[in-house]
Structure formats: C-alpha cells, structure tokens
Amino acid sequence: MSGIISQAFNEKTTLIDEAKEEIKRTYMSDDRPWVIGYSGGKDSTVVVQLVFEALRELPSNQLTKKIHVISSDTLVETPLIIQSINTTLRRIEDKAIELNLPIETHKVKPMVEQSFWVNIIGKGYPSPNQQFRWCTDRLKIDPANQFIKDKVNAFGEVIMVLGVRESESATRANVIKSHSVEGKVLMRHSTLTNAYVYAPIRRFDLDEVWNYLLNFESPWGDDNYELHRLYKESGSGECPLVVDKTVKESAGSCGNSRFGCWVCTVVNEDKALSGFIDSGHDWMKPLLDFRNWLASIRDDRTRRMKYRMNGQVYFRPMQVKEIDGKDYVIIPKKGSRRKDLIPLEQFDVIEKSELKQYLNKNNIDLSSSDDPMVLIKDKKQNLCRLGLGAFTLEARMEILQKLLEVQRDLTHPFDDEYDLIKEEELKEIRKIWFNDGDFEDSLPKIYRGVFGEDLNWEKDERLIFDQDELHQLEMMCQEEGLDFKLVKKLLLIEKDYTGYKVRRGLMDQLSSALQQDYLHL
C-alpha cells in the first residue's frame, strides 16, 4: 500500500515539476509582462504559488520582466474574503521584495459611476438576475480589462495568466480549446487586442489542485489548509476574476460560491453568506437578510417605473386562462415572485390609442409606484401589460435607507472601518438623484436621519427649490397639463449650459427630453 501511495505522490510531483518548467520557459521566451488574475480561490492560488516558486528557481539575471498579480474588488465582496485577499496580496508583495522577485500586486475596482450601489440606488437598475446580469461586466470585466489595456499601451503586448482548467466543465473546456493554437501554450484573447492568455494548470484536475496546495507550503506564509477548510464547509467554489466576455457564461454566477459578492441576487439562495453564518459568523446575518429583501423587491411592480430609462414604454403580452368558466390573467413566477392568477374582470381593458387618456383620467404617474390594473390590446388584439423599467426614485431611497441602517448596526469583528457603501458612491448617487428630479436633495437628509451627522457634502450653486416652490411649480404644471418631470428635466438641461458662450449640444438634449416615448402615448 505504501508503494502505491508513494507512486501516486511521485506522479503528482512530476506534474508540478512539469508545470514549473513550462512556466520558466514561457516566462523567459519574451519580454511581454504577465498579469495574473487572483480571486483568492484554489485555482488562482495554485497559479500564483507555482509562478512564485518557478521564479525563485531562476537565476536573478533572468528575472527580467514584471509580473502583476491583480485581484478584483467589486466593493461588495463577502467581507471575510476581501479581508483575506487584502492580507494575501500584501504578503505576496512583501515576500517578493524580500526575495528580490519582480512581482507586484494590485487591486482593480469599478469606477465609482459603475459601482453596484450607484447602478442600483443611483440609476435604479433592477438587481441582477440570470437574464439581466449586468454586474459582471461593470464590476469585474471592465476594471480588469482596463488594467490590461494600460499595460498593452505601455508595453505593446501583455500575457494574462489565469487559473482556468479544462476539467472544470465541458463548457469551459470547449472555450479553452476554441482559443488554443496547436503546439502553442498561449491562447488568443477573444476581446483584447495584443493580449494573450496562458493557463499553466489547464490540465490539472481537482484532486491535483488540492494535492499541490496541501503538500506544498505557501511561500508567502498563507495557510492552504485554512483555504481547504473554507471550501469544505461551504461545499462551493470561488468567483473567478473574469477578464474575457466569452467565458463569462462558462464562469457561471458567483452566488453559489464562497468567494462572491455578499449581495449577489443572480441565484435564488445565497450559499456564500449562509455558509459563513452556519460556520459561526452570526454578525453577517443582517447582510443576508438585506440581500434576501433586495431580491424580493426586484419584480415588485409598485417599486418599478413603467417605462425604461430612455423613456420608452413597452408592453408585455399576458396569458389568459379559463378556469371553471371564469377567465384569469396568469402572472408568471419570476425570481422570488410567486405565480398568481388574477380574475380578468379586475382589469380595465383598453385599446393602445386610449392609454394616454386613461392615464390622465386616473391621474396615473408611470414613474411612481402607481400600478394601474389595465390591459392594453396590441395590433393582434393580444392583451398586454405595461413593462417595467428602473426602480422608482422612492424605491431607491428606500433601498438606501435600509442599507445605511444595516451599515450603522453592523459590527465587523476584524475591521472597525468597514463600510457597505463608500462616501464617494453616496456623493455620486446624490448627483444622479438630482438629475432625476430630486430637487429636494434628499440623500443628505436620509444619511443624517440614520447616522445623526453629516458627511462633507459638496456645496454648489444647485438649482434647488424649497418645498413650497416645488409645490407651486407642480400645481402650475397640473393646471397647464404639463408633465412635471419633463419641466424639471428641461430646467436641469438649461442649467448645465448656463454660462457657456457656445452651447453646442443644447438643442439635441432638449429634443431628446421632449421626444421621450412616455410623453407621446
């Protein structure tokens, strides 16, 4: 038996040696810098550790080019994981400096205007789901790709080193093979010009990954057994650092993983946070409760506008089913919303040409929580319902209020400075709300109501009306039959161009505002 175990270990050791030798040859073959994607999970840890050890075995005069280890911080990472990643990045860089290795570590983050909370609370994006997974591009792919593009601009070409493996899934294997060139270790990057992909563990299986991590100590002092324990407790994997839009789908959602975003709503159940809480980290339960509430309100029609962000009104065909001689409108299950049957008689049924008159008669505001029980006949006489757009401004305020309350009451046992939403995000959201017609400047009031203090808000010559003036303006619009939101939008556009000698683009913006679909039903 001992002979069999020894033979198996030797085979694994040979695989590791072969991987390190290939890394050395590839590293020395040209002067293109490397960028290693590190997520904090098992596969990316193996890659960084193998590269680190391979470079240690090279003579110092052959260490001629930089290796950049990058990790994605979406700003909504699971708290303990981002803390672990920060610690590891610091240890890698410290050890590299000590050994005089050309390795640097970096964290890439989304631009503030593309952060998760700015998109949801500021712009009103519905929380991501499988059909509308807008988060991966904005929070992961774009920041990583920008880092790579900067290196391409500086050096001409760059090599991405990733912990992708063919045995992860058939889809992943097909993607890897489709980008491979026979006899070459480098693969073409599908979207980035002058960028190539190197996958040093592409032929490792899961057992070989863990065999290496548990038998070879981390050169920078991490505990790989602790990493194994996290996986064993959660029964799930990591959220990879995605740098290629073509492998986004093969990467899957991160909600089932231990190394994803704490607020992931792409999946029905967040196993990441649940796993930590079940392991004794009860302080994170408010995060799970908030995540579940956010997922539950996504398809709540009273919290969504009834037109898209560009003002377009659209219609969703509805099914009608007869049950026991009575017609019912079928409301399909979506996300946490249950399937429902509503008697057809509860709806008003109108022609599309009658919609504007119907809305005016019933004083219905499509940008508010108003959800008229009305079905519209299309050209084929199918019954349709108004489609949903962004979260209403009121819903966005509600989400912010609850998020700030969770932040106020949360006690992170290892980080007194931990924030769920950053100050720069709050300031960006404030600007977006104002441009969406929040002339009352509500965000500082919400913040003060939760924390009892103010941030250092920027003071400018904003076009802010007091409550009485806003009320008078709204009454005038009603009397004259004008859309109040449109009037505020036109005032904002004019303000933006005030003081410019050449006001190029003014008429285009005014025209765009006046041509919004919901104004011309």
Q: Report the principal-axis shape.
A: elongated
Helix content: 40-55%
Strand order of the largest sheet: 3-2-1-4-6-5
What percent strand? 5-15%
Largest sheet: 6 strands, mixed
Quickly count the helices: 18
Report the count of strand segments.
13
Distance between the termini: 80 Å
- Provide the gyration radius in Å: 27 Å
Global structural class: alpha/beta
Look at the structure and give the mean pLDDT.
Answer: 83
Runs in which pLDDT lies below 50 for 5 or more consecutive residues are 240-258
How would you describe this structure in keywords?
521 residues; single chain; alpha/beta; 4-stranded mixed β-sheet; 6-stranded mixed β-sheet; elongated; 11% strand
List the helices and strands and how they pair.
Layout: H1 2-28, E1 34-37, H2 42-56, E2 67-72, H3 79-99, E3 103-108, H4 116-122, H5 135-155, E4 158-161, H6 170-178, E5 186-188, E6 195-198, H7 206-215, H8 224-234, H9 248-251, H10 271-278, H11 285-297, E7 315-317, E8 319-323, E9 326-331, E10 340-343, E11 348-351, H12 355-361, E12 374-377, E13 383-386, H13 393-409, H14 423-435, H15 442-451, H16 467-480, H17 484-497, H18 506-514
Parallel strand pairs: 1-2, 1-4, 2-3, 4-6, 11-12
Antiparallel strand pairs: 5-6, 7-13, 8-9, 9-10, 12-13
Task: Write up what this structure looks like.
This is DNA phosphorothioation system sulfurtransferase DndC. InterPro entries: PAPS_reduct_dom, Rossmann-like_a/b/a_fold, Sulfate_adenylyltrnsfr_sub2, SulphurTrfase_DndC. Residues 35-265 form the Phosphoadenosine phosphosulphate reductase domain. This protein is α/β, with parallel strands linked by helices. Helix content is 44%, strand content 11%. It contains 18 helices and 13 strands. The chain has helices spanning 2-28, 42-56, 79-99, 116-122, 135-155, 170-178, 206-215, 224-234, 248-251, 271-278, 285-297, 355-361, 393-409, 423-435, 442-451, 467-480, 484-497, 506-514; strands spanning 34-37, 67-72, 103-108, 158-161, 186-188, 195-198, 315-317, 319-323, 326-331, 340-343, 348-351, 374-377, 383-386. A six-stranded mixed β-sheet has the order 3-2-1-4-6-5, sandwiched between helices. Strands 7-13-12-11 form a four-stranded mixed β-sheet, with no helix packed on it. Helix 4 packs parallel to helix 14 (423-435) and helix 17 (484-497) runs antiparallel to helix 18. It is elongated, with a radius of gyration of 27 Å. It starts with a helix and ends in a 7-residue tail after the last helix.
